[in-house]
Structure to design on (641 residues):
C-alpha cells in the first residue's frame, strides 16, 4: 500500500517533482564532472609517471649567456655540457643508495639512417640496457634502461650490453618509416661538420628489437652507450641520467639534493617538479569545481526544500486526514522522505549522465584529453543526490508532522 | 444507568489569550446511542467533536472514551486510539485526491493493520458504490464521496462514528442516502455522535445536546424533547 500511495502521489505531481529532480540533477552533475575529471586526470598523470619509470632526471648544469648589442638582445646561447660517465657510480653512494633501484645514462645524437634506398633522420640514443657496474664497495650492480623501463613493449629482444655490440633496438615509428624489420641492418651516419664529408663516421646496427612505448622512444634508435659515444666522438660523456628511486613517501627531493652534492656540476630534477605545472593546474581546477559544486549543491538543496515545503503546504488536508485515520508522525515523515529519496535517486542518475558530458567537454577544453567515464562515480553521485534531497526535506517534513488535523479538517 | 462509551466531565477549551471555545461541558454518551449536537455557529460544537475525536485536547476537564482516559495519552497513543476506536466523517468529505475510492478505504486499513482489498470492496458495496471502486474523488459526486468516507470510517470496526455535518454539503436526495447509511450503522449498534444545523436530522437521534457559547444549554432524549416541544 505504501508503494501504491508513493507512486500515485509522485505521478500526480510530476511537474513539481521534475523541478526538484532538476535541482538535484544540477548539483549531482557538477559533482560528477569534478570527480570524473579529477580521477581521470590523476590516473593519467600517475600513468605518465609510471611510464616515465624514473622519478629523477639528472642533467648537467648549463651556462646561459645573453647575446646582444647595447640594449638590443638577440636571445641567449646555451653551451652544451655533459656528465662524465665516470661519475655515475656516485649516484649509488648517497645516503639513500639502497632506495636507488637503478639508473640509466643517455647520450642523444641526431643521425642519418640508411636502409637500402630508404634514408631518414632519427635520434640515436646511447644507453646501458642491463649493464654490470661496479660500485664503490666492489659489488656488482646491474642497471640500465631495461631495469628502469621494464614496462616497454619490445618486439624481439633487448640489446645485451657488451663490448662494442652493434645490436640496436629501434622505435616502432622509425621501423615503419624506414621499412625496418627484426634482423635487418641499418647504417647510422654522423658528421659533426656536414661541410666536411671526410669527417663523417658511421656504424652498422643490427635490429634486434622494436620498441613501442607510445612516447618519444618510438622515434628513437637505442644502441649501446659505447657505440653512440664512438660514433659521435663523445667518449665518456652522457647527456642525462634517469634514476629510478623507490618512492613510497620517500624523500625524492632529498635524493636530488644529495646527488647534486655528490656530483656538483649537475642538476637533479624530480619528476614531481617536472609535473608541477600540470598538478598545479589540476589542483586549481579541482578547487574551483569544489567551490562550484558546493554552490550547485546548495542551490539543489534550496530547490528541493522549496518544492517539498510547497508540497507539504498543498497537502496539509491530506496529511491531516492521514493523521485523523491514525497515522503516526513517523508514517507521515516516511512518505515524504521516500518521495525525497526517489527525487534524489532520479536526480543523481541524471546528474551522473549530464556530469559525464560536462566532464568530457572540460577534459577536451582544459586538458586537451578525452576523459573516460568512471562507474565508481555513479554511487557517489547517487549518494549525493539522495543525501541532498533528504537533508533538504528535513525541515518541510518536520512541518508536515506539525500539521494539526483539527485545524486543517475543520469544516467551513 | 447504561454503559457510557463517552464520559466528559467539566471539559473546557481555552484558545489563548482569553477565548473559551468550550466551558465546563459534562456529557455522557451511552454505548450504541445516537447523540446529535446542535447549536449556532461558534457555539463550540466542532471543538467538542474534535476533543471526542482525539484531534484536540481539552484545557481542563476529564474525558474517558471506551474506558480510556484520553487526556493522559501522548500523540502516538492518541493516533493509535483513534484508529482503533473512532471513525471520522467530515462535512467536506476529505479524501486523498490521487487515490481511488477503493484505495481511500484501504488507506484506513493500512494505517490500522493489514490491507484487505476484498474487504474494502465489500465495504464500498454496502454503501452502494460497488460500481465506483476505481473512481477518484474528482470522478465522484459529493454524496458518493461522503459514502466512501462512511465506508472508510468504519472499515476497521470502530465502535464510534463521529460525523461533523455529514450532509451539510449535500443535496436533499444525497443527504437522505447518507442519513440512511448512518441509521443502518446505528441499528448495527454503532455509537453515533453527529453535529448538525438541520432540525430535521436532530429528530433521528436518541439524545439531543444543544450548545451555546461553549456551554451545554440543554440535553435530553429526542423523544422527550420532541414531546416537550
Amino acid at each position: 500500500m505504501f508503494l501504491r500511495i508513493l507512486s500515485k502521489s509522485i505521478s500526480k505531481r510530476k511537474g513539481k517533482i521534475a523541478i526538484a529532480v532538476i535541482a538535484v540533477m544540477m548539483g549531482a552533475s557538477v559533482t560528477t564532472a569534478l570527480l570524473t575529471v579529477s580521477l581521470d586526470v590523476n590516473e593519467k598523470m600517475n600513468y605518465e609517471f609510471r611510464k616515465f619509470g624514473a622519478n629523477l632526471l639528472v642533467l648537467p648544469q648549463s651556462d646561459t649567456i645573453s647575446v646582444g648589442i647595447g640594449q638590443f638582445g638577440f636571445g641567449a646561447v646555451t653551451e652544451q655540457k655533459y656528465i662524465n660517465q665516470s661519475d655515475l657510480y656516485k649516484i649509488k653512494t648517497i645516503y639513500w643508495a639502497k632506495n636507488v633501484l637503478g639508473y640509466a645514462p643517455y647520450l642523444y645524437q641526431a643521425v642519418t639512417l640508411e636502409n637500402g634506398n630508404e634514408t631518414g633522420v632519427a635520434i640515436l640514443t646511447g644507453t646501458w640496457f642491463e649493464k654490470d657496474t661496479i660500485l664503490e664497495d666492489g659489488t656488482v650492480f646491474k642497471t640500465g634502461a631495461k631495469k628502469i623501463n621494464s614496462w616497454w613493449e619490445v618486439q624481439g629482444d633487448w640489446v645485451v650490453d657488451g663490448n662494442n655490440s652493434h645490436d640496436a633496438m629501434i622505435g616502432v615509428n622509425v621501423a615503419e618509416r624506414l621499412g625496418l624489420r627484426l634482423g635487418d641492418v641499418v647504417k647510422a651516419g654522423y658528421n659533426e661538420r656536414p661541410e666536411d664529408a671526410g669527417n663523417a663516421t658511421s656504424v652498422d646496427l643490427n635490429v634486434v628489437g622494436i620498441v613501442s612505448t607510445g612516447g618519444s622512444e618510438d622515434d628513437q634508435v637505442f644502441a649501446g652507450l659505447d657505440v653512440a659515444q664512438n660514433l659521435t666522438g663523445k667518449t665518456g660523456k652522457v647527456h642525462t641520467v634517469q634514476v629510478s628511486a623507490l618512492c613510497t613517501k620517500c624523500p625524492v627531493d632529498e635524493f636530488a639534493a644529495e646527488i647534486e652534492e655528490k656530483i656538483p656540476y649537475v642538476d637533479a630534477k624530480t619528476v614531481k617538479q617536472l609535473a608541477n605545472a600540470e598538478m598545479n593546474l589540476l589542483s586549481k581546477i579541482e578547487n574551483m569545481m569544489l567551490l562550484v559544486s558546493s554552490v550547485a549543491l546548495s542551490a539543489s538543496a534550496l530547490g528541493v526544500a522549496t518544492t517539498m515545503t510547497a508540497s507539504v503546504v498543498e497537502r496539509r488536508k491530506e496529511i491531516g486526514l492521514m493523521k485523523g485515520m491514525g497515522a503516526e508522525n513517523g508514517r507521515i515523515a516516511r512518505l515524504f522522505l521516500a518521495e525525497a529519496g526517489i527525487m534524489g535517486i532520479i536526480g543523481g542518475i541524471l546528474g551522473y549522465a549530464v556530469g559525464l558530458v560536462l566532464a568530457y567537454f572540460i577534459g577536451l577544453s582544459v586538458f586537451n584529453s578525452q576523459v573516460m567515464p568512471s562507474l565508481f562515480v555513479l554511487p557517489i553521485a547517487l549518494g549525493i543526490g539522495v543525501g541532498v534531497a533528504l537533508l533538504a526535506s528535513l525541515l518541510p517534513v518536520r512541518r508536515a508532522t506539525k500539521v494539526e488535523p483539527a485545524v486543517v479538517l475543520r469544516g467551513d | 444507568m447504561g454503559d457510557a462509551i463517552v464520559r466528559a466531565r467539566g471539559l473546557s477549551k481555552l484558545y489563548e489569550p482569553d477565548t473559551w471555545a468550550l466551558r465546563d461541558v459534562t456529557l455522557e454518551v451511552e454505548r450504541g446511542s445516537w447523540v446529535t449536537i446542535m447549536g449556532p455557529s461558534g457555539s463550540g460544537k466542532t471543538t467538542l467533536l474534535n476533543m471526542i475525536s482525539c484531534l484536540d485536547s481539552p484545557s481542563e476537564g476529564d474525558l474517558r472514551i471506551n474506558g480510556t482516559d484520553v487526556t493522559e495519552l501522548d500523540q502516538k497513543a492518541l493516533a493509535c486510539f483513534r484508529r482503533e476506536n473512532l471513525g471520522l466523517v467530515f462535512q467536506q468529505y476529505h479524501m486523498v485526491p490521487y487515490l481511488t475510492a477503493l484505495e481511500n478505504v484501504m488507506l484506513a486499513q493500512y494505517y490500522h493493520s493489514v490491507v484487505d482489498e476484498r474487504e474494502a470492496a465489500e465495504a464500498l458495496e454496502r454503501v452502494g458504490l460497488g460500481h465506483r471502486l476505481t473512481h477518484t474523488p474528482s470522478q465522484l459526486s459529493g454524496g458518493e464521496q461522503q459514502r466512501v468516507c462512511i465506508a472508510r470510517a468504519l472499515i476497521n470496526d470502530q465502535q464510534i462514528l463521529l460525523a461533523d455535518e455529514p450532509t451539510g454539503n449535500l443535496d436533499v436526495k444525497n443527504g437522505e442516502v447518507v442519513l440512511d447509511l448512518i441509521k443502518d450503522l446505528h441499528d448495527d449498534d454503532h455509537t453515533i455522535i453527529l453535529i448538525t444545523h438541520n432540525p430535521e436530522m436532530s429528530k433521528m437521534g436518541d439524545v439531543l445536546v444543544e450548545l451555546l457559547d461553549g456551554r451545554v444549554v440543554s440535553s435530553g432524549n429526542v423523544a422527550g424533547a420532541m414531546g416537550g416541544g
